[in-house]
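Hi, can you check this record?
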Amino acid sequence: MSSQNDSGVPVVHAPDGVGYRLIELPPELLEALESPNPPNLSLEASAASAVLKCGSQEWALRQKNTSNALILLKPDDINASTASSPGRAGLKLISTTHDTIELVPESADKPAVPLSRGKWHEKFARGR
């Protein structure tokens, strides 16, 4: 019954006050950023949204909401180490977010126009 004595990994809620935004990177951009000579990125405004530019490639930034929370964790010693009792390895929950930023490819001749999806009642109440 030694498993009953194992208390697991302690998790502490300790938000750090930083507003995190997670960006889903397309494979070609990730590959370019991980190369030995990463390119410079620029962020510019357009009529529809912000645009991330990398060389000749452009991506429009779009916010994508999720119903499930994304929780950012950081390793931490839960109890401060002292000479008599060493700290215990655990996790700190530093932030929770419900949205990510996705990059949508945008061509120079045809900029991406945001889709107007409307509200739920506007979509489904039309047939009533």
Observations:
- The two ends are 62 Å apart (CA to CA).
- The helical segments are 27-33, 120-124.
- The chain has a mean pLDDT of 80.
- The beta strands are 11-13, 22-24, 42-45, 50-54, 57-77, 89-105.
